[in-house]
Every structure is written in structure tokens, then in C-alpha cells.
């Protein structure tokens, strides 16, 4: 078998077209996203400019707020407070990782949940479990949209999530559970990773380790979702799955790049538009 390639770019594009219509229906309200970027980490700058370009293409107002690496936590928190109260801003994203002297939890909790388009605030994290109006984290929610778009039914399927970060692994399991999958979490301390992943109908590889998942780790016909954003020895972007060997055995697989990444940004736009709709009571 050779797997179907799940084209994240194409799915992202089709979702962005739908978002254009929703923006047009906002009757003059322009969705606004504020991105706070601290320091001058090259990778962060690249991601942030991708986010800004995506906003621009859709007619979302984006405001970049740059602060020096040495910024104090209280200055950052004041900036967040101003954005919380700014009625032109519907989404606030503080680019992670933060410098070591700033407490990530305090920063995340300073953003009002209604503008937390990353879905990292404890209120949004909690509502993912209990229900209620919330934002879901962009990467796992984007993966759910990809699975839906591909017509992959999750009911009763065994999904194995490899990785337990707050940003991807943990919310991924919750979202899969909501869609009635049976969920197993694996991580760096899992005793026999292969024993678990071999059982999976769907493997989500989100551990941040290049080639962690090979053909030997999956069963014939499994769906492989690769969240990895690693660099190989030549500096080339690569995922957590050994793409070529997995492709030969899986029924569907996401490439890196062009898989989950474009969906992450699209879901950020999606959450920003959703927020503008909620604030303007269109929804
Ligand atoms: N508060 C916050 N929210 C985030 O959502 C957030 C963050 N901080 N910090 C950094 C990570 C990383 N991230 C990516 C988004 C899109 C691609 C993406 O579109 N990747 C392209 C390729 C990009 C390339 O070529 O370098 C792809 O996979 O095809 C990658 C990585 C969001 N992050």
C-alpha cells in the first residue's frame, strides 16, 4: 500500500476561503490579531511573519508588538492588559518560547480567555474538557479539521498520541476523545512505545524527535499525523515520522512541510475570526 498524502496546504486554503466569507459577513468589523514577539530569535521571527502574511491575505488586521529580550515581566503584562481592553483587537498571541526570566503561566493567564486565540488559558483548557464557549489550541484543532476533511471517522478508533505537551499532545487527546476515539497517550518515559503505536488506527507523532516513528511502529493501514518540526543534519525541515517507510505502510500520512503546519496558522485565523464574531454578536 502507498498512503494517501494528506495535503495540509490544500485543506488550509479551502478553510481560508470559507473564512473570507465569514469576514465579509462581519459587516464592517475587521478581525484584529495582536502578536507579541519578544527578542530576536530567527525561527520565531519567521513564524510570526508567516502569521502576519496569512492575516493580510484574508483581510485580518494584524499588529506586531516587538519587545526586547530584556523586557520585564511587568512591562509585558501591562502590554497584554492594554490589548485586553483594545476593542480593535480580538485575538492576542504571545509567541512562545519566552525568555527564561518570564513566567509563561503568568503571561498566559494575563490574556483574557475571550481573546486567547491560542487556547492556552486555563479557562479554555478547562472548557475543552467540560464544554462551553472556548478556543481550542490551533495545532490539534487543525489536525481534527484535517481528519474530518479526509473523511476519517474516529468513532471507536484507537488513537495513540505520542507527546504530552500542553500545546499539542494533551489537547490532541482530549479532542480525539470528544470524537469518540479510544485514546492512549505515550511520551518520552513510555516503556515500550512500539507496543502501543502498533495497535493504533491513528498515530499522532508530537514528540519533537526526528524519525521516532518508523514503519515498524505502525500497523498496516494506519493514519499517521506528523506534528514534528525538526531540522535534520542538513538543516532541512523534517517531522517525527520516517516519512518514506511510513508512507509505504500507512493508509494516509501528513507530510512535513505542507501538512500540519499550514493548518496551525489557519486555525489561528479561524479562532481570530470566531472571536470577532463573538465580540460583534454575529454569532
Ligand atoms: N503562542 C504561540 N502559538 C503558536 O502557535 C506557536 C508559538 N507560540 N510558537 C512557535 C510555534 C510553531 N508554530 C508553527 C506554525 C506553523 C508552522 C508552519 O506553517 N510550517 C510550515 C513550514 C514552515 C517552514 O518552512 O519553516 C509547514 O509545516 O509546511 C510551523 C510552526 C506555531 N507556534
Automatic annotation (TrEMBL):
Pathway annotation: One-carbon metabolism; tetrahydrofolate interconversion
InterPro entries: Aminoacid_DH-like_N_sf, NAD(P)-bd_dom_sf, THF_DH/CycHdrlase, THF_DH/CycHdrlase_cat_dom, THF_DH/CycHdrlase_CS, THF_DH/CycHdrlase_NAD-bd_dom
Domain Tetrahydrofolate dehydrogenase/cyclohydrolase catalytic stretches: 6-118
CDD domains the UniProt entry points to: NAD_bind_m-THF_DH_Cyclohyd (cd01080)
GO cellular component, one term: cytosol
Residue numbers binding NADP(+): 163-165
Any one GO BP annotation for this protein: methionine biosynthetic process
Catalytic activity: (6R)-5,10-methenyltetrahydrofolate + H2O = (6R)-10-formyltetrahydrofolate + H(+); (6R)-5,10-methylene-5,6,7,8-tetrahydrofolate + NADP(+) = (6R)-5,10-methenyltetrahydrofolate + NADPH
Keywords: Amino-acid biosynthesis, Histidine biosynthesis, Hydrolase, Methionine biosynthesis, Multifunctional enzyme, NADP, One-carbon metabolism, Oxidoreductase, Purine biosynthesis
GO MF entry, a single one: methylenetetrahydrofolate dehydrogenase (NADP+) activity
Domain (Tetrahydrofolate dehydrogenase/cyclohydrolase NAD(P)-binding): residue spans on this chain: 137-278
Enzyme Commission no: 1.5.1.5, 3.5.4.9
Subunit field text: Homodimer.
Protein purpose: Catalyzes the oxidation of 5,10-methylenetetrahydrofolate to 5,10-methenyltetrahydrofolate and then the hydrolysis of 5,10-methenyltetrahydrofolate to 10-formyltetrahydrofolate.
Family to which this protein belongs: Belongs to the tetrahydrofolate dehydrogenase/cyclohydrolase family.
Name this polypeptide is given: Bifunctional protein FolD
Amino acid at each position: 500500500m502507498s498512503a494517501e498524502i494528506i495535503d495540509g496546504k490544500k485543506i488550509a486554503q479551502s478553510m481560508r476561503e470559507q473564512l473570507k466569507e465569514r469576514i465579509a459577513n462581519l459587516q464592517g468589523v475587521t478581525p484584529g490579531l495582536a502578536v507579541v514577539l519578544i527578542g530576536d530569535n530567527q525561527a520565531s521571527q519567521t513564524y510570526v511573519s508567516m502569521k502576519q502574511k496569512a492575516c493580510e491575505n484574508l483581510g485580518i488586521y494584524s499588529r506586531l508588538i516587538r519587545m526586547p529580550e530584556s523586557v520585564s515581566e511587568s512591562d509585558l503584562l501591562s502590554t497584554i492588559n492594554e490589548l485586553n481592553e483594545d476593542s480593535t483587537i480580538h485575538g492576542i498571541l504571545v509567541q512562545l518560547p519566552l525568555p527564561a526570566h518570564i513566567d509563561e503561566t503568568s503571561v498566559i493567564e494575563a490574556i483574557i480567555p475571550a481573546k486567547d486565540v491560542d487556547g492556552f488559558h486555563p479557562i479554555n483548557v478547562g472548557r475543552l474538557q467540560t464544554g462551553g464557549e472556548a478556543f481550542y489550541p490551533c495545532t490539534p484543532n487543525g489536525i481534527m479539521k484535517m481528519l474530518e476533511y479526509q473523511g476519517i471517522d474516529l468513532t471507536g478508533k484507537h488513537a495513540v498520541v505520542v507527546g504530552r505537551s500542553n500545546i499539542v499532545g494533551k489537547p490532541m487527546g482530549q479532542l480525539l476523545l470528544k470524537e469518540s476515539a479510544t485514546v492512549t497517550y505515550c511520551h518520552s518515559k513510555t516503556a515500550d512505545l512500539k507496543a502501543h503505536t502498533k495497535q493504533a488506527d491513528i498515530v499522532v507523532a508530537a514528540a519533537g524527535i526526528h524519525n521516532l516513528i518508523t514503519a515498524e511502529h505502525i500497523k498496516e493501514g494506519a493514519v499517521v499525523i506528523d506534528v514534528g518540526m525538526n531540522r535534520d543534519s542538513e538543516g532541512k525541515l523534517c517531522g517525527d515520522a520516517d516519512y518514506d517507510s511510513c508512507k509505504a505502510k500507512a493508509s494516509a500520512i501528513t507530510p512535513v512541510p505542507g501538512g500540519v503546519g499550514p493548518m496551525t496558522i489557519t486555525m489561528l485565523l479561524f479562532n481570530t475570526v470566531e472571536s470577532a464574531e463573538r465580540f460583534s454578536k454575529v454569532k
